[in-house]
Amino acid sequence: MRNIGLMKAVAAAALSAALAASPLNRAHADGLFVSAGTEVDDESGYLLYAGVGGNIAEQTSWDFGAGHADTSRDFSSLTTTSYDAGVRHDFGTVALRFGIGGWEDSDLVTTEKLAAALDFHGEGWSFALQSEFRDSAFEPFDIDRTIVRRDGTSVTITGRADCDLEDVGLGARLRLSNDSWSWMLGGMDYDYDDPECAFSLPALDFLRRSTRDEFIQFADRLTNILSYAAGTNLMAENSFLESRLGTSVSYTRPIHTYSIYYDRFEEAFFGLESDTLSGGMTFAIGEAYELELYVGLTESDAFTNIGFLGFSMLFVR
Prior knowledge:
The protein has helices at residues 4-7, 12-20, 212-218, 220-230, and strands at 33-41, 46-57, 60-70, 79-90, 94-105, 109-122, 125-138, 141-148, 154-177, 181-192, 196-199, 241-252, 256-267, 273-285, 289-300, 306-316. It is mainly beta. It has one domain: monomeric porin ompg (Porin).
């Protein structure tokens, strides 16, 4: 699994894992880290991200990160700003992390989330249970179309809608490692409530609790945009997914780490699937810096193949 949280510098667990497998001296992980990077794809999309974190106490750490992604010049027409913050405490063989985060496209949707993870770990292994609770508020949008209702009847809708959507994600991650090799497998499934909408015309209140299929029909512009974006490596983290599954393997040498990642995503609105394969090399620069370079390819039901490349820099004090 390509560590999207590390790329965007917004997940303490991912950063801790990266440091554990890093060519840098692990003793450096007791101090402050700063990370930043960028990613571009061959459809003119780009991502910028930065993050910072450190220790509050011997067994307690914090992290904060932010990112900006833009695919407005390609097929998805989406521009998002995201943030994430968290606190992690290690009790010895068990660690807990609690976090908050969110992302928005000012023309489409604003999303806020709460996250929690329970991480069991020992020498050379870790197993984490993960959860996310998300509330998404869509920008008001106009409707002028005919939809098919849940009972099979057709109805023409004209008006303006203001909708919210809540979902819960539950997942797990397994990581095994030794001095040279590291392997990880993880995934998450999402369960969505029915969208809740308010309409400019009282006559449309029968759609206040719409089914997902009804919502997809009368909110077709925004669901199409969000569906396409979910298939890109740049936007997969900031999207509405039905499920995600990924695995990675890394091999560490004295000053280099070589990694291969595979991710599979299914988006929530139309069930479109995408597969991403990428590979990268990480190497230490001096005592405190680490640079990762990576390239990859995404194949999706929604579009032709998209290639991407990126780099990230990590400083640990």
